Amino acid sequence: MTNSDVLPDVLVVGGGAVGASVALALVKQGVTVTVIERDSVASHASGFAYGGLFPTMGAGIPGPILRYAKQGIALHRQLAPELKEITGIDVELRSVISLDLADDEAGFRNLEKTLAWQLDEELDAELLDSEGIRRLEPALTGALAGGLVQRSHFEVDSYRYTLALVTAFEQGGGSSRSGDVVGLVRDGDRVAGVQLASGDEIASDAVVVATGPWAGEGRGGLPSFPVEPKKGEILRLRFPGNDFAHRVSLGGHYIARKPDGLVWVGSTEEDAGFDDRPSASARESIIAGVLALAPALDSAEVVEHTACLRPVSSDEMPILGPVPGHEGLFAANGAGKKGILLNPVIGQMVAAAITGNAAENPIPAEFEAARFEYFSSPD
Ligand SMILES: Cc1cc2nc3c(=O)[nH]c(=O)nc-3n(C[C@H](O)[C@H](O)[C@H](O)COP(=O)(O)OP(=O)(O)OC[C@H]3O[C@@H](n4cnc5c(N)ncnc54)[C@H](O)[C@@H]3O)c2cc1C
After folding, report:
1. Residue range of the domain that includes 290
2. Predicted confidence (pLDDT) per residue in 57-92, tens digit
3. CB within 6 Å of ligand 1 — which residues?
4. Given ligand 1 and candidates 21, 24, 214, 346, which is best to mutate, with the most ligand atoms within 8 Å of its CB?
5. What is the mean predicted confidence (pLDDT) over 268-279?
6. d(CA 138, ligand 1 centre) in Å
7. What is the pTM of this model?
8. Residue 206 within a domain
9. In a domain, 284, yes or no
10. How confident is the model at residue 377 (pLDDT cuts 50, 70, 90)?
């Protein structure tokens, strides 16, 4: 789509954090937008994610994601008060100190390497020995060689955050509609709207696919994006006291107290298709992992167990912008393990691509949807 005085009517498919961010960014530019969601807003990963805004870990860090992770934190810091003002919803943005732990000498050497690149990137971090770490978190009585103290981390409540985005979008003039999108409407080579499972068709100038892990399904002429679901589970524990005010992590396990006093422990990574039911095996593996670090948690009570699906692309980078061969179709998916952190950045980039202002918020080559080939399933 080229820059023009006439702004397009846009349909955003998917009411997770990514779809909501794109929708809000578009509405702010005066575009007429409808979000179509088949379940309810924030009912999948965007409502159950830990909500960490961590610029120091994950795919592409250090590397191409780091710059956008920093930008994501800066945008969250602007957005949180704005969302509170517009919607009354406090997204509970707060700064957290994370302790990445090592339980042996080899692990500690790795933390030294991590410290070196974080300092090069001007991220606030320091190494402590096991005594220093236990002074901060005395409940860490398991094996410990030391830890990296990271002060560049923030977090939000991902459910409140996604709800606030959608509420702000609606208050800005956008509309939401319930519906299961099963295909595209076409006008020649152009995408001209969507078909719903109810049989209804909704016309639009542009369609954004923000369907999270379901972006790979490719139903009804929609292209199949190279995105797979990666299941993750988290337990919320009642554990009275002040322990775990710092978020502690070792290997794949973490322990962190949230503002409501519950201690979150996680998580798992599993290829289980679209099965998003909590499992006994994940619960056992999380409990075993965190008890090795903090045996005192044995007395904690599990009050909630959640499972949801991360949308992970084949190269672990987001898939954004115009979809080749489908004029009028835009991708906003593949945010992987960083969709809560990155969605404000994704929202700005995809909205700019749709309104013809890509020069202001360019999509970097490593995120462009055009790096893949797309094959549609038969209509
Ligand atoms: C255990 C766990 C912990 C996480 N922790 C963090 C973290 O600490 N920090 C971080 O940044 N990220 C984290 N993530 C990742 C983050 O949750 C995701 O990257 C993000 O929520 C993806 O948002 P999304 O909007 O793309 O997808 P989703 O939240 O899955 O939303 C997609 C929406 O599209 C709808 N939909 C799908 N198909 C259709 C259709 N055909 N028609 C209509 N609607 C449709 C779905 O119902 C869904 O509501 C975590 C994920 C998990 C699983």
Report:
1. 99-152+229-313
2. 999 999 999 999 999 999 999 999 999 999 999 999
3. 13-19, 36-39, 43-46, 49-52, 180-181, 210-214, 232, 234, 266-267, 308, 310-311, 333, 335-341
4. 214
5. 97
6. 35
7. 0.96
8. yes
9. yes
10. low
